[in-house]
C-alpha cells in the first residue's frame, strides 16, 4: 500500500532526494511538502487532510519543526509522525517523544532505518485495509 506522505523540509535538495528515495524503496507517495512551520501546520491540520505519514525536520526556513509536531498531537490513530533531523540528540529525542512523535531518525546515518519504518508502516496499513479471509 502506498503511504500518503507529507514532508516538512526547507532544503530542496534533501527534500527532493528523500522523496525519490522513499518512492523507489518504500512505496511512499509525497502528497505535498512545506518549507516553514506555518505551511506545515496549516496543511497537516486542515480538515480532511489525507496523509498517512508526516516527515518533519526540526530546523526550518521559518519557525521550527517542534511547532509542527505540537500542532499534530491530535491526529488520527493511523497517521504517523516522524522526525528526520541532523540534530537527533538524546535531548531532542526526548522532547519529540513528549510531543507524541512516533520515531526520530538522524539524517546522517539513519536513512535506511527511515526506509524500513516506511515499509513497515505501509505493510501495517495494508494489513488493516485487507478484508479478513473467510475460513
Features:
135 residues; alpha/beta; 5 helices; 5 strands; globular
Radius of gyration: 15 Å
**Widest β-sheet, arrangement of strands:** 2-1-3-4-5
Note the total helix count: 5
The name of the CATH topology is: Rossmann fold
CATH class: Alpha Beta
What's a concise summary of this model?
The chain is of the alpha/beta class and 135 residues long.
Mind explaining what this structure looks like?
The protein is an alpha/beta fold and 135 residues long. It has helices at 12-26, 37-44, 65-71, 90-98, 111-129; strands at 3-8, 28-34, 53-56, 80-85, 103-106. The longest helix has 19 residues, at 111-129. It starts with a strand and ends in a 6-residue tail after the last helix.
Give the topology.
Elements: E1 3-8, H1 12-26, E2 28-34, H2 37-44, E3 53-56, H3 65-71, E4 80-85, H4 90-98, E5 103-106, H5 111-129
Helix pairs in contact: 1-5, 2-3
